Amino acid sequence: MLLQVDGLRKSFGRRAAVDGIGFSLDVGEIVGFLGPNGAGKTTTMRMIAGYLEPDDGVAKIFNIDVAQDRRRAQERLGYLPEGAPLYGEMTPWSFLRFMAEARGMTREAARHAVRRAAQDARLGDTIDRPIETLSKGYRRRVGLASALLHSPLLLILDEPTDGLDPNQRHAVRDLIRKLGEERGLIISTHSLEEVDAVCTRAIIIDQGRIVVDQTPAQLREKYGSLEKAFETLTRGDERQ
Amino acid sequence: MKKRPGLASMAAIYRRELLSYLTTPTAYVFVAVFLFAIGLFTFQVGGFFDQRRADLSAFFAFHPWLFMVFLPAIAMRLWAEETRSGAIELLLTLPAPTWSLVLGKYLAAWTVAGAALVLTFPLWITVNFLGSPDNAAIFTAYLSSFLMAGAYIAIGSAMSALTPAQVVAFVLAVLASFVLTALGLPLVSDFFAGVVGGGVAETISRFSILYHFDAAQRGVVDFRSVFYFATLIALCLGFTAVSVDARRGG
């Protein structure tokens, strides 16, 4: 099992952002995290990535408890944070070199890893331009490349296609589909069409809880369409 | 072959941080202002030429006072900028121990401070041209100044970890540095002597940066002062690591 999450909880002040989330993930699965803003998608992903400590519950990557043995778990995970933060003054090449070396790779290993990840993320000739001059689509790809550097089998990508134009979105989706063939992926998204296009499973989260965990086909069968399913299953902030 | 993970991460963080100092104009501006100010103070206020002595005491005397403004400006971005830009999430999801991040960044800022000190070499040349100073004593004074700079940078790092706003980090660091320095002023000691008695006032002044820097300026290496600065640096970096790690708690 790539990832096993059980009873994950996190509160900020008195508000429970994540309220008992559990699921598991295997190689070959691409799970789409869906849910209204503030449903707890990012908080869940951050806890799995070891950026936030859960108040309760466990996340295990290859059976390694993230909270107990954080660094060993993090070595096995590729993570794209929300908004793909980067260092704008660096070039993708120097940024990726830095990320690889900060992961403990030797210079030689880092060079290889960067070359391969840049190719996988199709950075092309942007590799030597300052990141702050790149388009949003390319910046997202730089973030993706940095998640791929150490060839992790588990990838967690927080809104990998957010803010991209249709062509860029298409390219990133192709990449995700290809990555999913021999890895396990979790992507969060607001696009239901994306879930249909790339995901093998849809997990809908509302108010910190999983309300459904099924294949897109099952959801369509039961509710007619993914939009209908989303609307029926999530209350969201608007209707409270 | 895999290097020791913590050290490799620290080295990578150090290189990145140093590179970012070198590729953004702010550090150059601060160093230039520092060099200009130290020259101005040494010659105009310190009366370097009037003293008619071939030493650099007029130069070193101003180091604590200039450092406590200049070095917080160098250190203020260390953590505040990461928090503001969100890049801290990249750092905290690296399989690297927190101390390696804290130390890597700290050492890069300290290196910049060291470079600023090295760039004051024309003064050393001048004093050697004018007379024959005790170069061993000057060297010792430079070393203790460098050590003191490390303490101010460490204070700046600790304050930078508290806030996403660089300006706030700067102001907090200047305040903390000022208090820790000024406790050693005779003016402050005399005040405390009047309130709590001479013995306590003496003890308070021994906790000041100024007291230990002055001791080192007399040309002898006092290990109590080295210990003082090392302890201060360790405490501030420990504080930085704790507040960086506290983010994981949400």
Uncertain runs of chain B are: none
Task: Indicate the radius of gyration of chain A in whole angstroms.
Answer: 18 Å
Instruction: Report the helical percentage of chain A.
Output: 25-40%
The 3D shape of chain B can be described as: globular
CATH evolutionary superfamily of the largest domain in chain A: P-loop containing nucleotide triphosphate hydrolases
Whole-Å distance between the termini of chain B?
A: 36 Å
Oligomer: heterodimer
Largest sheet of chain B: none
Estimate the mean pLDDT confidence of chain A: 92
* CATH fold descriptor of the largest domain in chain A: Rossmann fold
Side-by-side strand order of the widest sheet of chain A: 6-7-8-3-9-10
How many domains in all of chain A?
2
Structural class of chain B: mainly alpha
Radius of gyration of chain B: 19 Å
Question: What percentage of amino acids of chain A are in beta strands?
Answer: 25-35%
Count the beta strands of chain B: 0
CATH structural class of the largest domain in chain A: Alpha Beta
Q: Give the count of helical stretches of chain A.
A: 9
Number of strands of chain A: 10
Helix content of chain B: over 70%
Continuous helix count of chain B: 14
Layout of SSEs?
The complex is a heterodimer of chains A (240) and B (250).
Chain A: E1 3-12, E2 15-25, E3 30-34, H1 41-48, E4 56-61, E5 64-65, H2 70-75, E6 77-80, H3 92-102, H4 107-120, H5 136-148, E7 154-158, H6 166-180, E8 184-188, H7 192-198, E9 201-206, E10 209-214, H8 216-223, H9 226-233
Parallel strand pairs in A: 3-8, 3-9, 6-7, 7-8
Antiparallel strand pairs in A: 1-2, 1-4, 4-5, 9-10
Helix pairs in contact in A: 3-4, 4-5, 8-9
Chain B: H1 5-23, H2 25-45, H3 57-60, H4 63-75, H5 77-85, H6 88-92, H7 98-118, H8 121-130, H9 135-160, H10 166-182, H11 186-196, H12 198-206, H13 209-217, H14 223-245
Helix pairs in contact in B: 1-7, 2-4, 4-9, 4-10, 7-9, 7-14, 9-10, 9-13, 9-14, 11-12, 13-14
